[in-house]
Amino acid sequence: MTRKRAGVLAGIAVIAAAGVGAGAAVAATSSPAQPAGASQAASAGPGYSWYRSMMTGYYGSGSGSGMMENSSYGWMMSQAGYRWMTGGTGSPGWMTGALPPAMMGTGMMGGGTDPGKIMGRLFASAPGPRVSAAQAAALGSQVPAGAQVSKADNTITFTTTTVRLTILASPAGGPDESFRAAGLINPRVIVPAGAHVAINLINADPDTAHGLVVTASDATGSWMPMMTARPAFPGSALWFLGNPTTAGMHQGTLAFTAGTPGTYHYLCPVPGHAQKGMTGTLTIQLPIAYPMSLNRARSRDMITPART
Predict the structure, then answer these.
(1) How many Cβ atoms are within 10 Å of 173's Cβ, its own excluded?
(2) So where are the chain's domains?
């Protein structure tokens, strides 16, 4: 096996191992952030055909080696393997065991290679929605509907029950390994409990894969955060998006309901990225409730139509 193929295999292995049970989504289908239950139907579509073609291009039609023996390779190439990679559950035993010590450090691929660079190249041509660089720049600076933005506090506050926010991953003109939303870097996002949240993630990094996961754990100090943190809510993870191409930048949507009030973290789950600062906070708070006395006063002040 060539060094390039070995590196890609290591990248897939670490991404797979880190994502066990995470309910993550990969941009390998036309709906990158689709729920796990929807991915079975997708396995019969063009996404699965592209996936097999891409994997075969790197490994041929034979067996794997080292980390992936014949049965493991066969499973990874199967529809079940594809469904798992695109957000399904049911990973096989060889993915759920303890990782070799060499894979737990930053030098697992030799020379401290960023796994995101391998996965970015690997999934650069994946099918899925795209936007142009100009569109991405505009979306990354746009104030979302129903939101108040404070540059001084680096916060985006929503009071509406429907939240729609675009986040750019490592865009030009900002710090490397960071998120940008409404012109802010790694902002604190505040939403009311029970809100229906849709986060549109765009990978603006020219040579590295990025994703976004909302988690209840502060895993920002972990090189592989998804080994110690799980998505806080169903649908609150998008595993990674590949590198941009001439067709545009990959985008995908996380959709979830803001549950228990508290402070959560959003971060890039690609190994090493959260450690470098690719993280922010999501605060879920109870809607503002007026005291009953104030509500009565507000009711008296309301103008009602005159009776005739």
Answers:
(1) 8
(2) 3-99+107-122, 130-285
How far CA 293 is from CA of 98, 278, 286, 297, 303, in Å, comes to: 59, 45, 20, 6, 18
* Confidence bin at 77 (pLDDT 50/70/90): confident
Name, in order, each residue with C-beta under 8 angstroms of 248's C-beta and a sequence gap of 6 or more.
130, 131, 132, 133
**Single pTM value for the model:** 0.71
Q: Write out the H or E segment, with its range, that includes residue 215.
A: strand 210-215
Q: Which amino acid, one-letter code, is at 23?
A: G
The first and second tokens of residue 301, run together, are 């002040």
Closest C-alpha to 219, from 175, 278, 284, 283? 278
- pLDDT confidence of residue 133: 96
Could you read off the pLDDT of 130-175 as tens digits, one per residue? 999 999 999 999 999 999 999 999 999 999 999 999 999 999 988 8
Burial call 61-72: b when 16+ CB within 10 Å, e when fewer: eeebeebbeeeb
- What pLDDT score does 103 carry? 40
Please answer whether residues 119 and 15 qualify as being in contact, where contact means their C-beta atoms are separated by less than 8 angstroms. Answer: yes
Q: DSSP states of 26-83 as a string?
A: BSSSSSTT--GGGHHHHTTSHHHHHHHHHHHHHHTTS---TTS-HHHHHHHHSHHHHH
Residue 287 has pLDDT above 70, yes or no: yes
Integer Cα distance of 234 and 48 in angstroms:
23
CATH no. for 130-285: 2.60.40.420
Rounded to a whole number of angstroms, the CA Rg of the chain reads: 21
Beta bridge partners of 281: 265
Q: What is the mean pLDDT of residues 52-63?
A: 66
Beginning with the edge strand found earlier in the chain, give each strand of the sheet holding 147-150 in spatial order. Answer: 147-150, 155-158, 188-192, 279-285, 262-267, 210-215, 237-241
